[in-house]
Task: inverse folding
């Protein structure tokens, strides 16, 4: 077993349930197509990393989908909001014996393997690593032991999440990496070359 684990949080790609804020601009069908495109990109970026990898499904674990069970463990998210779901996933991972655990979402076109490798490396000398998102949240979070307070009392999906998280981490060492843009609304992709094929 590798001592590093990457958690990938995904939503089950279903019409009307994927990328709902984006769907207001492009419609449910195009939003679902874009989300599947982002899932494929996440798989491409993560499949050859040397760490262990686990996909956490929002609703139900799926067999025979894009996530190969030879490469990815599969779990279902547990908890009533995003904070509890992340906390439970980290907790289970540390309980399983992993020493560095990191979580990423599945809506980042600009994420590269280097971002993830660098984040694991920065955990050698820091307690927590965060890769900020342009919207005030974060798209990657890694730690060496559970920091439960960062999963509580947050307005998930709002621009205050990163600031509030950093406030909770004043007693530990935190490293911030590159800021990237995750895909939530039409403004996130309308000027991005990779997405023009969906916006015609």
Result:
């Amino acid at each position: 077993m590798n001592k590093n684990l990457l958690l990938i949080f995904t939503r089950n790609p279903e019409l009307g349930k994927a990328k709902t804020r984006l769907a207001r601009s492009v419609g449910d069908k195009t939003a679902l197509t874009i989300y599947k495109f982002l899932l494929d990109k996440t798989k491409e970026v993560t499949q050859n990393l040397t760490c262990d990898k686990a996909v956490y499904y929002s609703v139900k674990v799926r067999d025979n989908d894009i996530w190969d069970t030879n490469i990815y463990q599969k779990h279902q998210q547990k908890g009533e909001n995003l904070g509890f779901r992340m906390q439970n996933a980290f907790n289970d991972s540390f309980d399983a014996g992993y020493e560095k655990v990191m979580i990423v979402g599945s809506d980042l076109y600009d994420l590269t393997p280097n971002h993830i490798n660098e984040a694991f490396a920065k955990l050698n000398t820091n307690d927590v690593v965060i890769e900020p998102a342009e919207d005030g949240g974060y798209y990657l979070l890694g730690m060496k032991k559970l920091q439960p307070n960062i999963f509580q009392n947050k307005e998930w999906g709002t621009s205050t999440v990163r600031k509030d998280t950093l406030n909770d981490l004043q007693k530990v060492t935190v490293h911030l990496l590159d800021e990237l843009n995750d895909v939530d609304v039409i403004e996130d992709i309308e000027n991005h070359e990779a997405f023009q094929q969906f916006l015609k």
Notes: The CA atoms of residues 40 and 55 lie 13 Å apart. The mean pLDDT is 94.
